[in-house]
Amino acid sequence: MAAESILVVDDVPLNLKLTGILLQREGFQVHTTPDAEHALSLLRGFHPDLMLVDIELPGMDGLTLTRQVKQNPTTRDIVVVAVSGHASDGDNRQALEAGCDGYLSKPVDPTILVSSIRDYLQHHTRTSKTPPPERHAPATAAKPVAGAEDLDVETLQRQFLEEGALRCRYMLDSLEHDFDAQKAARLFHQWVGAAGMLGYMAISGLAREAETAVSKGTVDFPRLRDLLSNLIVQFAKPEKTA
User: Fold this and answer.
1) Is the overall model pTM greater than 0.90, yes or no?
2) Rounded to an integer, what distance in angstroms lies between the CA atom of residue 224 and that of residue 220?
3) Architecture of 5-149 per CATH?
């Protein structure tokens, strides 16, 4: 039996790489894309068993992508699992109303991610009344994940920690002048998911607090300064969750 195929749609490169490693090691065929428009173009000649879609994508968001997938007779049978950085009943409800078959909130524990995907696929197999469509490899424009043996999780972890520390120091220096709250909020949001996937739950939690501090219209600069200082400490010597 051919390995089940998964299309991961996420605009954070680290999330794409790490998710690809985890799922390939579990025997899935994994392809990735950073935006919804490209995902739709891939689906013209590629029929994955499941799509893992980040809700907050640039341009067309993940829920709009899901609606288009589910309204198309040739793709509506694809299992779509939404991923969101905001764990709320409202986001969950909106995802299901858009046609998503499931919903996961960031940070997603890698073990839960894999087991949830298997559960969604098994449920779909049990309840589907139509035979599975013939699967084809995606067009050359797709980005298949390299072999898991060619990707080093430790390298990704090191790069994440080094870049995070540098970004935090830069933001601390820019708090008094030229601080871009919108850009900072986006970066913090990315860290919530990436740190969780890498097992750095303390960083993920601090990033979520920092995102809140810059997303309320008026930036809480004293609170943000403390959070950035704590993030620098964690990036330098992170508490790793097993």
Assistant:
1) no
2) 6
3) 3-Layer(aba) Sandwich (3.40)
